[in-house]
Amino acid sequence: MSQVMQELLAALSQPIRLSTGVEVGVSVSIGVACQPTHGFDGPGLVRAADEALYHVKRNGKQAFAVALAS
């Protein structure tokens, strides 16, 4: 999963050229949760992914984190 997430971060972090010609940078932070390790229902998975996302944001952004096992 780590390799795929690194490639996804790299692809999503590329500068974007607007129709006006202005280039803007984008930063990406991703929280990951998987069934059944992190929950069985939608709300539980979203909660776990959200916790992982905020872990990334508190620790420097521009990265990904996988939720802790519930």
UniProtKB/TrEMBL annotation:
InterPro entries: DGC-Regulatory_Protein (IPR052163), GGDEF_dom (IPR000160), Nucleotide_cyclase (IPR029787), Rev_trsase/Diguanyl_cyclase (IPR043128). It holds the Pfam family GGDEF. Residues 1-69 form the GGDEF domain. It comes from the Bacteria. This is Diguanylate cyclase (GGDEF)-like protein.
